[in-house]
Design goal:
Length: about 350
Amino acid sequence: MPLTLEITLRDETLEEDAFQIIKVVRPNWNPETVRSKLYTGGISNKLIGYYQDGKIGEDVVMIRMYGQNTELMIDRKAEIDTMILLHGYGLGPELYAIFRNGICYEFIQGRILSMEDVRSPEVYPRVVAEMVKMHCDIPSNGLAGNHAEEAGMWNKIRTFDALVEEILQTNPTLVARLETFGFDVSPGFGTRAIKEMENILKSQNMPITFCHNDLLLGNIIYDPNTSKVSFIDFEYAMPNYPAFDVANHFNEFAGIDNPDFDKCPDRAFKSKWIAEYLKGFKLEGVELSQEKFEYWIELCQPASHLFWSLWAIVQAHNSKIDFDFAGYFGLRYIEYDKQMKEVRKFL
C-alpha cells in the first residue's frame, strides 16, 4: 500500500517541497546526486520527475501536484483506488505515496505517443490490446468487484455542468469570451445538451466496462525497446461505455496544444482499428458486430466533445496553468455541434 505523507507542495517552492517526498520514498538515494525534471505537457496538474544523476533510465520517481480546484471535478480517492487496482492487474504505474495535494508514483519507461505512433501499424495494435485488457479484465465497477449498472460519465458530466452553471452567472468576463465562438452559452445550455446526449446513448443499451476515458496521446506511453504500451493518468477512469473510450481516443488524434481535428482518423482507419479491437474483445453475454460498434462510436464522438467542452469551462475559471482553456472549449464545442448535426440526421 502507498505511504501517506503529511506534506503540502507549494508553487513557489515546488521542487524543494517535492524533494521532501523523495527523501521518504527513496531514502537510500544520495541527495547530492539527485536530479529533477519538470514536465510541462500537462494541462491539469504539475509534474516533476526525480532520478539519480546518470541513471534516468533506471529509476525515476514521479511527483504530481494537483491543479488548482481540480478536486471539484475529480474524485481523488477514486483515482488512488483505481491506480492500486489497475497496477494489480499489470496496468499502470505503482503508487508510492499520497500527500496532501498530490501523489508520488512509478515512472513508466518510454515516450508519449506521437501523431505518427498512434497510426503506426507497429504501435496502434498494442494500444488496442491494452484497451481491450482494461475493458475486459477489470471489473466494470472497479474495486467494488461487481458490474456497474450505469455509465459513470453521466454523474461526472453533470458535476461539470453544475459548476458551469455557477460560472456562467458569476464570471461575465469568461462568458463574454465563450460567446465569441458563436454559440448560446446562457445558463442551461449544457444541461440541455447533456439531456439530448443521454437520451441518445442510453437508448442504445451499450455494454458498460471499466474505461480510462482520457486516452489522449500524452496519456499513452510507448517503449520502443520492449514494444510495450502503457496507460497513465487515471483521473477520469470509471465505468463507462467502451465505445466512448474508443471514440474519445479517436478525437484525441487532434492533439492538445493546437488541436487539428482534420487529423482525426478517417473511416478506413477507424474500421481497421475497430476490427483489431473486436478480435480481442471478449465479454460474457456481449456480442459486438463491427457495424454496430462503429455506429456507437459515431454517436459517442460528439459526447466526448461535449464532456471536454464543459470541463474546459471549469478549468478556464479555476486553473492557474498557462493554457487557453476558453479557446479549447471553443474548439471542442465546434466539433460537438458539427458532429451532432450529423448524428441527428441518422437517428
